[in-house]
């Protein structure tokens, strides 16, 4: 029922033999296609396009109102109390996290430790390394974080931890981290929590201000292009007080209240953090996407994607030579992201065959989470060193399928058939991919 609401899902694409095949997109963790109504809304809105907070003309005032009112829709979507939080528009999750790292990094107040995990996307790891000492929570053999290790780190570094930051869901295994328990622990030991919501927000309901006050999520970052809107818009939601007295990371038009040749008074948040003319089309697209997600219902989306995941795991598990990573059996504690390999073929070859012969788009490689993939593949220190010293060595990696709300069981059947063909003709594909790909 949702398939018809998404743009381009029935597009035909050329295979390697030049025949056309209906495209199957199992790479939604990278980017989702947009909702039809998002494209209709921005097309219709184009006629009303004008400057934000910079004019008294009718269109300009209308655009400024739409831009500001969207903040309410965004806070509402993640159940964030508008009296406490401010939503700052950014271009994506990466920019959101860099902004927060910069801001907290300017005034560490002797709390110079960030606790995170080694299952993070590089965007929730590298920005912190610029300003803080980063401690990584241990993972178990299935690749899930250990709450005990988090607690012992919080005790060991009590008074020195500026923030605990974790992905709401991993972009490699789809694991859902127990974010409310993590928030509870962070607050118990006097620090705050940030959730990288890039993978979580489009697939799972979130409450920033939950009933149990101790489990409040202090910061949340996410991207519009993973939730059925186009590229270029993301949000950082933060307590207003965090941005009350800092100097913004980017300064210029829109960030100031008073400027003289030798004096500057910054605007109040969120405006002081949104330098330059903003991306209103992106905000219009994002709020329309949120409206549609609300209409569908996040619980229903979650349930549908869980059923797709259970079905895929069950079928992949039965194919010899398919190596599944993490929890191999069901969708418990995970979203619709499944990493696997086929014994004897490279991830590069498998992804190329799936696309070229099956019209099936998956992602392969390390998914901007190299430390996590190294752990899942049990890659030794020695091997990592060898690769550092020799950039020509091939990168290890995985195949990742990731679902969107519009994917179907029939599409999964096509993937399974194709994987079976690859497995039964492994020798042939090994020789072919070695030569051709
Ligand atoms: N965090 C996670 C968990 C992600 O999956 C991604 C995107 N792959 C990002 C952060 C970065 O998102 P963006 O590229 O939109 O900044």
TrEMBL record:
Transmembrane segments: none annotated. PANTHER family: CYSTEINE DESULFURASE, CYSTEINE DESULFURASE 1, CHLOROPLASTIC. Keywords: Pyridoxal phosphate, Transferase. The lineage of its organism: Bacteria, Bacillati, Bacillota, Clostridia, Halanaerobiales. Its cofactor is pyridoxal 5'-phosphate. It comes from Halothermothrix orenii (strain H 168 / OCM 544 / DSM 9562). Its EC number is 2.8.1.7. This is Cysteine desulfurase. Belongs to the class-V pyridoxal-phosphate-dependent aminotransferase family. Csd subfamily.
């Amino acid at each position: 029922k949702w398939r018809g609401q998404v743009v381009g899902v029935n597009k035909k694409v050329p295979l390697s033999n030049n025949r056309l095949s209906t495209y199957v997109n199992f790479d939604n963790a990278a980017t989702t296609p947009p909702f039809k109504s998002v494209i209709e809304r921005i097309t219709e809105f184009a006629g009303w396009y004008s400057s934000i907070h910079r004019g008294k003309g009718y269109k300009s005032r209308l655009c400024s109102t739409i831009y500001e009112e969207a903040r309410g829709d965004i806070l509402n979507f993640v159940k964030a109390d508008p009296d406490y939080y401010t939503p700052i528009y950014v271009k994506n999750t990466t920019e959101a996290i860099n902004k927060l790292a910069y801001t907290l990094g300017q005034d560490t107040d002797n709390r110079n430790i960030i606790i995170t995990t080694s299952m993070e996307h590089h965007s929730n790891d590298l920005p912190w390394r610029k300003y803080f000492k980063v401690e990584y929570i241990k993972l178990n053999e299935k690749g899930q974080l250990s709450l005990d290790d988090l607690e012992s780190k919080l005790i060991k570094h009590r008074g020195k931890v500026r923030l605990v930051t974790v992905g709401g869901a991993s972009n490699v295994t789809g694991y859902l981290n127990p974010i409310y328990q993590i928030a509870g622990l962070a607050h118990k030991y006097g620090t705050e929590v940030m959730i990288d919501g890039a993978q979580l927000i489009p697939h799972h309901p979130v409450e920033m201000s939950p009933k149990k006050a101790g489990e409040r999520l202090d910061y949340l970052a996410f991207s519009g292009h993973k939730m059925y809107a186009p590229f270029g818009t993301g949000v950082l939601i933060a307590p207003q007080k965090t941005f009350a007295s800092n100097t913004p990371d980017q300064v210029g038009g829109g960030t100031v209240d008073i400027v003289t040749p030798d004096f500057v008074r910054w605007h109040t948040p969120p405006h002081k953090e949104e330098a330059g003319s903003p991306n209103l089309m992106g905000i219009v697209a994002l709020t329309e996407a949120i409206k549609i997600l609300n209409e569908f219902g996040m619980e229903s989306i979650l349930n549908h994607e869980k059923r797709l995941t259970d079905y895929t795991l069950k079928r992949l598990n039965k194919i010899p030579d398919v190596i599944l990573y993490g929890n191999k059996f069901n969708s418990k504690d995970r979203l619709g992201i499944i990493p696997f390999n086929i014994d004897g073929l490279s991830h590069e070859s498998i992804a190329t065959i799936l696309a070229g012969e099956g019209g099936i788009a998956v992602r392969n490689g390390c998914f901007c989470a190299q430390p996590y993939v190294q752990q899942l593949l049990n890659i030794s220190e020695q091997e990592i060193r060898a690769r550092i010293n020799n950039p020509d060595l091939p990168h290890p990696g995985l195949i990742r399928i990731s679902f969107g709300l519009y994917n179907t069981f029939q599409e999964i059947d096509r993937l399974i058939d194709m994987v079976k063909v690859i497995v039964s003709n492994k020798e042939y594909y090994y020789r072919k991919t070695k030569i051709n790909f």
